[in-house]
Design goal:
alpha/beta, eight-stranded mixed sheet, six-stranded mixed sheet, binds adenosine-5'-diphosphate
């Protein structure tokens, strides 16, 4: 198959991120975002070869209208572009225990994604809508599902089980699944290239620090532990999510303080983390600005974010034994030299010595090692989840077309 372009779709409940990626080199031909679905001000914006476009969509538009617009008004307006598509790749948040790798979407896979909706009620139903709309728009192209959870399916039971009665796992699939798998996979593979080591001999700790944040222990190229759990609420301090917490707090607020359960969950998911502690913002740039001005609660939010992150990194020495590198990625990991410095300072017991010049240079998409020669290695690697999705989609589309040819 000579076609190399993949339309990558990341469908949320109220928005849809899209990109057209050259799967062989990661070049981004188009990128964009449709948002405010099911609202009067539904809209879409995009970028092609550096040129930006934006327009409103008909009121109350959602996935299918947005995909129609992307196909008819953006892709088809570029001469010969659609003819170069090899596949449509869909980012799927939750694949449960059913999906351990990317797959071509057929009826059974679609049903499987729907079944996993109980584990990701905000995301998986939106993915199904996006897949159906993309199937209608591109009936002849293979559609591929790439799961955020798949990379973590290699975790051993001692890492993925909660210490709850075993039948809750057997009956309801309550266990830790982990997220951000495509990102952790991508940066670990890039680290292998930088360190000139085969991936299957590489032990790294990868910290994906964006609005959502998770950290993964990767041993011999495979995920062996990760900080997110059954849902993306567990683990690190995040933009608006609380991360690790004593579950009795929920009971205390509901039974003693007359909060509703929905209200408490809204607090844990949308009003906690950096936003809840600082009272200022969930955006790390604003936290940093206020921290630099000496604001007490921004400083506390920053300190808590860094402290918990460093504790997780230290704890992953247990499953790994040997740590070849710590990797920082995601908007905060790729840009905040302050976070990286302070985290490594808390890890001096491991001998990390930061190189402040290299650390400050690693921003805005620059990758590189940020520790001194002779120190254990920490590095910054900009993530590229879309490229992983495009690569998997192209690889599966190629085998699919070979299978059809030989059938
Ligand atoms: P998402 O999880 O939505 O994909 P990103 O990976 O884009 O998030 O990361 C967003 C976070 O990165 C925000 O908190 C943002 O403030 C932070 N960020 C972006 N640029 C910088 C910067 N220069 N310094 C500190 N934080 C930054």
């Amino acid at each position: 198959m000579s076609n190399k372009l993949v339309l990558v779709l990341n469908c949320g409940s109220s928005s849809l991120k899209f990109a057209v990626i050259n799967a062989t080199n990661g070049d981004e031909i188009i990128s964009g975002l449709a948002e405010c679905f099911n609202l009067p001000d539904a809209r879409i914006k995009w970028k092609i070869a550096g040129k930006k476009g934006a327009t409103s969509l008909p009121a109350n538009s959602a996935h299918s209208q947005a995909i129609s617009y992307i196909v008819e008004e953006i892709i088809n307006k570029e001469d010969g572009l659609a003819e170069q598509f090899a596949a449509v790749g869909h980012r799927i948040v939750h694949g449960g225990e059913k999906f351990t790798e990317s797959v071509i979407i057929d009826e059974e896979v679609l049903e499987g994604i729907e079944t996993c909706s109980s584990l990701a009620p905000l995301h998986n139903p939106a993915h199904v809508l996006g897949i159906k709309a993309a199937q209608a728009a591109f009936p002849t192209l293979p559609q591929v599902a790439v799961f955020d959870t798949a990379f973590h399916q290699s975790m051993p039971a001692k890492a993925f089980m909660y210490a709850l009665p075993y039948n809750l796992y057997k009956q309801y699939a309550i266990r830790r699944y982990g997220m951000h798998g495509t990102s952790h996979l991508f940066v670990s593979q890039e680290a292998a290239k930088i360190l000139n080591k085969p991936v299957n001999q590489l032990n790294v700790i990868s910290a994906h620090l964006g609005n959502g944040a998770s950290i993964t222990a990767i041993k011999n190229g495979k995920s062996v532990d990760t900080s997110m759990g059954m849902t993306p609420l567990e683990g690190l301090v995040m933009g608006t999510r609380c991360g690790d917490l004593d579950p009795s707090i929920i009971e205390y607020l509901v039974t003693r303080k007359e909060y509703s359960l929905t209200g408490v969950m809204d607090i844990l998911q949308k009003q906690s983390g950096l936003l809840g502690i600082s009272g200022i913002s969930s955006d790390f740039r604003e936290i940093t600005e206020n921290y630099e001005k000496g604001n007490e609660r921004a400083t506390l939010a920053m300190d808590m974010f860094i402290y918990r992150l460093a504790k997780y990194i230290a704890s992953y020495a247990v499953p790994l034994g040997r740590i070849d590198a710590i990797i920082f990625t995601g908007g905060i990991g790729e840009n905040s030299h302050i976070v990286r410095t302070k985290v490594l300072e808390l890890l001096t017991v491991f001998g990390y010595q930061i190189d402040s010049e290299k650390n400050k240079a690693a921003i805005l998409g620059e990758q590189g090692i940020i520790t001194k020669n002779g120190s254990p290695v920490a590095m910054v690697i900009p993530t590229n989840e879309e490229w992983v999705i495009a690569q998997d989609s192209l690889a599966l589309a190629s085998t699919d077309s070979l299978a059809l040819a030989s059938a």
